[in-house]
Write a structure and sequence with these properties.
Elements lengths: L11 H16 L12 E6 L5 H12 L3 E6 L11 H8 L5 E5 L3 H11 L3 E3 L7 H15 L6 E5 L5 H13 L2 E5 L8 H7 L4 E4 L2 H5 L4 E4 L11 H5 L8 H4 L7 E4 L11 H6 L1 H22 L2
Parallel strand pairs: 1-2, 1-3, 3-4, 5-6, 5-8, 6-7, 8-9
Helix pairs in contact: 1-5, 1-12, 2-12, 3-4, 5-12
């Protein structure tokens, strides 16, 4: 593995190897060695973050490296420099790059032109680091995903749902997505995915019925905050006590955060499942350390 650009590009074996490494690094925290000693890793963020920035900066430092945070206002990308030119400069100076941005192609181009190990820390297409953290949490709390139904309630074609669909394709678990009709995966995507274990419905009750993992996210992704018409499509899609009455008795609830209580999830349910949700947030650190170790040169 030379980069981590998407779940789509990972094999089942690579996902499982990363999760095994993440579990080991979590257990060995403070004693994990220094595979990034002497290395500087650039964090190039055109989208703001809390969990992504903190977890990567802490992870790089714990592995012996030095993180260099670069917002769009710190470098010439914010003034129109092409990503391939920025990539060719940084490729001569740093040892790896972590990119959180809008266009997936920017991450792909950076990896190609920089020659550096490159990590997708979120694009509009995929959120692979979050899905690996979520799978680690499912593994810890439920013993794994085999035989468990995972439901996603919300935007059916967000970066989170795309990554979940590719994870289901690779690992074979049942995934049920409930989304408004206007926010469902296009037919051509589902045809290309070719995963009979992935179902899509407009009824959250159907998706949640018998589910062991109920996952949700904000209805409007970063950069979509002015799309109030889209938000109105989600009436009836809140993860609340009435919806969870349909779930398996031993279910868990996940949310990648930040959460908007009273919209995609109720205050009551978020607090009831806070231990799992904030364990999920912590697992970003351990999953991303596993990625960094896998890419260390």
């Amino acid at each position: 593995m030379n980069h981590l650009l998407s779940i789509e590009q990972l094999s089942a074996r690579e996902i499982q190897r990363l999760l095994k490494s993440a579990a080991h690094l979590k257990m060995q925290r403070g004693r994990e060695g220094q595979p990034l000693a002497g290395q500087t890793w650039a964090l190039i963020f055109t989208k703001s973050s809390t969990r992504t920035r903190v977890s990567f900066e802490v992870g790089i430092r714990e592995l012996g490296g030095f993180p260099m945070f670069l917002s769009k206002n710190d470098i010439q990308l914010g003034r129109g420099e092409l990503i391939k030119d920025t990539a060719r400069v940084l490729g001569r100076m740093v040892h790896g790059a972590i990119i959180r941005t809008f266009a997936q192609q920017d991450v792909v181009d950076f990896a190609e032109y920089s020659g550096l190990p490159t990590i997708n820390a979120l694009t509009d297409d995929e959120h692979p680091c979050q899905i690996l953290a979520d799978l680690l949490t499912v593994q810890e709390l439920l013993g794994g995903w085999h035989g468990n139904k995972i439901a996603f309630i919300g935007d059916g074609f967000s970066n989170m749902t795309r990554s979940w669909m590719w994870a289901a394709k690779r690992l074979g678990f049942e995934l049920a997505i409930a989304a408004p009709a206007a926010c469902q995966p296009p037919a051509e995507f589902l045809t290309a995915l070719a995963a009979p274990n992935v179902s899509v419905t407009t009824d959250p009750m159907v998706a949640t019925r018998g589910a062991h993992v109920i996952n949700t996210d904000v209805w409007l992704s970063m950069g979509q905050e002015d799309q109030q018409d889209k938000e109105r499509e989600f009436a009836g899609f809140e993860v609340n006590a009435q919806l969870l009455a349909q779930a398996a008795p031993d279910h868990i609830v996940l949310h990648c955060l930040p959460a908007y209580r009273g919209k995609e999830i109720s205050e009551e349910i978020l607090e009831l499942h806070a231990d799992a949700i904030f364990q999920e947030a912590e697992n970003r650190l351990h999953a991303q350390k596993a990625i960094l170790v896998a890419l260390a040169r």
